[in-house]
Structures are given as C-alpha cells and as structure tokens.
Design goal:
single chain; about 240 residues; alpha/beta; Trp Operon Repressor, Chain A; two-stranded antiparallel ribbon; elongated; binds 6-chloroguanine
C-alpha cells in the first residue's frame, strides 16, 4: 500500500505516521508514505497558496493551481489512485470503508486548511469525500492520519499476528471481549476462572458471550448486522429478557 498525501504540513504527517506499527510496516516495505507539500507549488513569490474568497466572507481559500500541480507531481507514480478529499461534508469513515480502501494499491489524500479549497480543482481531481465524524477540525491532516492507520493495519503482514486484525471490535459487528493478564488476583479481583481452565472450547464460548453482552450494553445498534449462530441468538434473547 502506497499512501500519498497532499498537505501544507508534511512534517506533521510524516512524523506522526512514522511511529510504532506504521513505522515498522514502512521499514518492512509493506506500506509507504509520500507527503507532498502543496506550498512547494505556489505560483506566488511569497509562496502563498491561499487568497480571499470571491463574494466575500471570513477566512481564506486555497487556490486551485498549487493543489493541482501537487497532484500532477505524483499522479503518474500513483497511477489509478483514488483521491480522497478530507472534509466534514464527506461520507463518514467506518471499518467497512477501511476494508474496502485497503484493497487499493495507491491512495492519495488531499488535506485542506483555512475555509477550504477552490471548488474547481476539487471537481477535477477528487474521487471520494470522507469525514471522520460529525465535528469540525482545523484541517484534514489528523483525519488522513486516522484513515491511514485504520487502512494500514489491514494490509497483510502489518500486524505480526494475522488473526488479531480479525478477532477484534467490529469483526462480526460485535465489540471485543474483556482481556486479562497477570497477576491472577489484583485489588481483590480475580481473573475469570474459565480463562485459567485451559479448555479452548469453553474459553471461545465465554468470549463470544461477553462480546454479545458488551455489544448489547454499549452499542446495541451494531447487533442488527451481527453474525450470530442459533445458540448465540438464543443467548442474546435471554440477555434481553433479563434486562427487561
Ligand atoms: Cl475529514 N476534515 C475536517 N476539517 N474536519 C473534520 C473532518 C475532516 N472529519 C471530521 N471533522
């Protein structure tokens, strides 16, 4: 997976991205990141990339020329790449979108600042508009980093155990079960005994049940798309009955 990001803050993106698991993944050539500084394509001797909005109003608007030139500087390398514009007006990002985008070979993220980007260049280059939630941020860099983390960890080999990407929150639309490690007793609380039993079947069953309980308690909206077998559906029905 090759990520390209068009931004006014390339250092911020590169520094944050090259930490922890994404750093190791980049060292292992599983993912790459190239940050393109839009300011390098300024058409102005002061390296300005924004100007006043036509029609008046608050703030500044990013000019189309530098954004387009920044895009052109990588478009051959990133051939066929979708161009994802980070905007609160976009479709709200979720795990399903992460899974879909993880199938791509190249992805370009376009990050705006100020009051936004001149509409004409967006019309020409953007294929997808994505938001990370219903709140307003000052720029698209943090959202793009969020997306790259969510997508990058789905690339085969990025997580060292290839099962852990599957057995987690949102797999089967269920939340994760609780985890415990040593010591067995802490603040007079015991680790559930089934986890010490060594009986894998019972452990699996207990974990599935905890996942169902948690999802019902914290995110009941997810249950309508959960993949439950007959026994699990009965367990859920029993929980709902007990909660009445
Ligand atoms: Cl993608 N951009 C900005 N500026 N604000 C946001 C966002 C994106 N997603 C949520 N808020």
């Amino acid at each position: 997976m090759n990520f390209y990001i068009l931004t006014l803050f390339p250092e911020m993106v590169e520094q944050t991205f090259h930490t922890s698991i994404m750093k190791r993944a980049a060292e292992n050539d599983l993912i790459s990141l190239e940050a393109v500084n839009i300011r390098d394509f300024s058409e102005n001797k002061h390296m300005k990339v924004d100007d006043y909005p036509y029609g008046g109003g608050a703030g500044m608007v990013m000019q189309p020329g530098p954004v387009y030139s920044a895009y052109e500087s990588i478009k051959e390398k990133a051939k066929g790449a979708r161009v994802v514009y980070m905007t609160p007006q976009g479709k709200v990002f979720n795990q399903k979108m992460a899974e879909e985008l993880a199938q791509e070979e190249n992805l370009i993220f376009l990050c705006g600042h100020y009051e936004g980007i001149d509409e004409r260049v967006l019309e020409e280059i953007v294929t997808d508009e994505v938001s990370i939630g219903d709140y307003v941020l000052t720029g698209g860099e943090l959202p793009a980093l969020v997306m790259m983390d969510a997508i990058g960890r789905l690339v085969p080999g990025v997580l060292n155990n290839d099962v852990s990407a599957e057995i987690e929150s949102f797999h089967d639309n269920l939340l994760e079960y609780p985890q415990y490690t040593r010591p067995v007793t802490w603040h007079e609380k015991e680790v559930p005994s089934v986890l010490l039993s060594g009986h894998h079947g019972n452990v699996e069953k207990w974990r599935r049940e905890k996942s169902i309980e948690r999802t019902l308690a914290k995110r009941p909206d997810l249950l309508k798309d959960a993949n439950l077998d007959k026994k699990e559906q009965q367990y859920l029905a029993k929980l709902k009955e007990a909660n009445k």
